[in-house]
Design goal:
Blueprint (H helix, E strand, L loop, with lengths): L10 H25 L30 H4 L12 H13 L1 H22 L4 E12 L5 H6 L5 E15 L4 H67 L5 H35 L26 H7 L1 H22 L4 E12 L11 E10 L7 H67 L5 H35 L11
Antiparallel strand pairs: 1-2, 2-3, 3-4
Helix pairs in contact: 3-6, 4-6, 6-7, 6-9, 6-11, 7-11, 9-10, 10-11
InterPro entries: MdtP/NodT-like, OMP_efflux
GO molecular function: efflux transmembrane transporter activity
GO cellular component, one term: cell outer membrane
Length: 493
């Protein structure tokens, strides 16, 4: 097929000319598409990180199968507490900090849609009226008519322009925005996990305080009976006034400790109210009889940790975005190719505006590039490469911090488990000692001061066991959060 056409423009020749121009446009379009297959800048590869084969403190622990033991993401159900499950569900729907992160994610999604829109042509429509005047160069002529040179122009125009992504600048920009959106989604998951962890910890500590309150209430009742007994013995002349004073001191000190728990419980209750999006005045959490049980904490292999933790996922996707921005910066060295077409009507009168003699049109490609910018483009490339290095270092540090946190909570749980066994033995011994001491006092073999000492020791051991139980529960929450909680390593479609 040839593009040569004769010069006489009869009908067949005109069709030949159109065919030739169409061939050139087709060739140009194919060339643009072939060039668009490449993209300037490096393709992303995950940076290598130090990844141990197993956790140092994981001896004796089983590997995780969280999908087999609980609903995906509902890690708080491991504690088997229905009120807690209800509070977390309220947090998921009403927590304002999570709502802020969710709004940020929607902003990132909008940027992705905007970046996709850059691949399509832009269509503009305009219509207007212009009133203009031009002097004639003669003062006498202008005096003869005040309206000389004034002209009204009506015009309407439709324009289409499209930027060919020859060097991949738009594709790299879309890649960066998509990675940023995925990082924002991971940030949302991290914030939700953080707020869930805070609520569960507050709830568990509140339940331990309820148990401490019940313990102190029972102890106060026992001390009241002991005071009554010493008063009876004092009136009978069996014991002295000092025994009564010691019993009163012990009773009032324990009552003061019980009162002190009220404000501690109120603080946790108010914190829970804010986490579920309620004013503290509108929220009350009734006491229960039991503390949630310590779950068998699921563990994962180190490689799975990289996929489960949302902060690590966010850090890696930030690297993808930074890597794509390098391509955008390097594409600035190359010319931009824009294909544009416009057409419309222009006339001095509105009545015959839309008519064949008043039409105009233009079509053609345009190449534009910066020849000299004083080093701005090279500086931008250097900046984006430095940002990439920064995000890689942040990613690696986030991974290291994740492994450190898991190791810390693993050893904490293991040590607290060993300590709990010894504390329970000490408590059993203190209870037996108290029983024997009370029997001796009732038989008149020892003074009440000996009873006070043993009672104080027993109460201290009781509270130590409860405090240790609280520490184990909190450590289990921290470990689950460090393992990524309900994060499954997948992104929002």
């Amino acid at each position: 097929m040839t593009d040569r056409c004769p010069l006489n423009l009869d009908a067949p020749t005109a069709r030949c000319l159109v065919s030739a121009r169409g061939s050139r446009l087709l060739s140009l379009s194919l060339s643009v598409l072939m060039l668009s297959a490449c993209a300037i800048g490096p393709d992303y590869q995950r940076p290598p990180v130090a990844e141990p084969a197993q956790f140092k403190q994981a001896d004796g622990w089983r590997q995780a199968t969280p999908s087999d033991s609980l609903a995906r993401g509902a890690w708080w159900e491991l504690y088997g507490d229905q009120p807690l499950n209800g509070l977390v569900e309220k947090l998921n729907s009403a927590n304002q900090t999570v709502a802020q992160s969710e709004a940020q994610y929607r902003q990132a999604q909008a940027l992705v849609r905007s970046a996709r829109g850059a691949f399509f042509p832009t269509v503009d429509l305009s219509a207007g009226k212009t009133r203009s005047s031009q002097g004639t160069g003669s003062s006498s002529s202008s005096l003869s008519s005040t309206n000389s040179g004034i002209r009204d122009t009506y015009n309407t125009q439709l324009g289409v322009s499209w930027e060919a992504d020859v060097w991949g600048k738009l594709r790299r920009g879309l890649e960066a925005d998509k990675a940023s959106a995925e990082a924002s989604f991971a940030d949302l998951a991290a914030m939700r996990l953080s707020q869930q962890s805070e609520l569960v910890q507050n709830y568990l500590q509140l339940r331990v305080i309820d148990q401490q309150k019940r313990l102190l209430q029972a102890t106060v009742e026992n001390y009241q009976r002991s005071l009554q007994m010493t008063e009876n013995q004092y009136r009978a002349g069996v014991s002295g006034k000092d025994a009564v004073v010691q019993a009163q001191t012990q009773l009032k000190s324990t009552q003061a400790d019980m009162i002190d728990l009220i404000w501690q419980r109120a603080q946790f209750e108010n914190a829970i109210a804010v986490l579920i999006g309620l004013p503290p005045a509108e929220f009350n959490l009734a006491e229960t009889q039991n503390i949630p049980t310590l779950p068998q904490v699921p563990l994962t292999l180190p490689s799975q940790l990289l996929e489960r933790r949302p902060d690590i996922a966010s850090a890696e996707r930030s690297i993808i975005a930074a890597n794509a921005h390098i391509g955008v910066a390097k594409a600035a060295y190359y010319p931009d190719l824009t294909l544009s077409m416009s057409g419309g009507y222009s006339s001095s009168t509105y009545s015959n505006l839309i008519s064949l003699p008043n039409r105009f049109w233009s079509v053609g490609p345009k190449l534009a590039m910066t020849l000299f910018d004083g080093g701005q483009r090279s500086a931008e490339v250097d900046r984006t490469e430095a940002v990439y290095d920064q995000t890689v270092a942040k990613y690696r540090q986030t991974v290291l911090d994740g492994f450190r946190e898991v190791e810390n909570y693993l050893v904490q749980l293991k040590v607290l488990e060993d300590e709990a066994a010894v504390r329970q033995q000490a408590l059993d011994a203190a209870r037996e000692s108290l029983r024997l001491t009370l029997n001796q006092y009732k038989a008149g073999l020892i003074a009440y001061l000996d009873v006070v000492v043993v009672q104080a020791t027993a109460l201290s051991n009781e509270r130590s066991v409860l405090t240790l139980q609280q520490s184990r529960l909190i450590a289990s929450v921290n470990l689950i959060a460090a393992l990524g909680g309900g994060w499954d390593g997948q992104t929002q479609p």
